[in-house]
Amino acid sequence: MKKITGMLWTVMLVLLSLTACRAEHTDPAKTTSEAEKSAVTAEKSDIYRFEDYESSDVFDIQKIDLGEELAAKCTSFRFTYLSDGLKINAYISIPNALTQTQKPGKCLMYNHGGNRDYGKLEKNNTANACVLCGRIVIASQYRGCGGSEGEDQFGGDDLRDVIKLIDLCETQFSFIDMDDFCVLGASRGGVMTYQAARQDSRIKRIISMSAVTDLFDCYESRDDDMKKVLVETIGCTPQENPEEYQKRSAVYWADEIRVPVLFIHSKGDQQVSYRQAEELYTKLQDHTDCKFMSHDDDSHCALQKEDLAAIREWLGEE
Question: How much is the pTM?
Answer without folding.
Answer: 0.86
